[in-house]
Write a structure and sequence with these properties.
This protein has 114 residues and is mostly helical. The chain has one domain. The chain has five helices and no strands. 18% of the residues are buried.
Length: 114
């Protein structure tokens, strides 16, 4: 895996973790910024080295931090919808259908009551 994709995935993983812990009360840019700092510290590199991966290296498809944050916000919203739907899943088939729709499995039946 390229370092670009690896670092971006690390940022996304940390940002969604922070968002879930906090309940999504703040702007997605806050969680992204905190995630960038965390990834940079863990890797022993500058935050700008991490943020350049999504600020500059994804162009022309995603150009700049505002464009990345808009996609991050849309992803957060889809996760919020998914979590709420999972809370109401009654059977494993319900969860499988949600996993198929959203792309990856997240919970087992009964685990959605957070």
């Amino acid at each position: 895996m390229s370092s670009r994709i690896e670092e971006i995935l690390e940022v996304l993983e940390e940002a969604i973790r922070l968002w879930e812990v906090d309940g999504g009360r703040l702007a997605p840019s806050y969680y992204r910024n905190e995630a960038v700092k965390h990834v940079a510290t863990r890797r022993g590199i500058l935050s700008t080295s991490v943020s350049n991966k999504f600020r500059r290296e994804l162009g022309p498809d995603i150009w700049g931090t505002p464009a990345f944050d808009a996609l991050l916000e849309a992803w957060f919203r889809s996760q919020a919808l998914r979590k709420n739907l999972e809370k109401h899943a009654i059977t494993e088939n319900d969860l499988r259908a949600l996993a198929d729709f959203f792309g990856t499995p997240r919970l087992a039946v009964g685990a959605g009551a957070a």
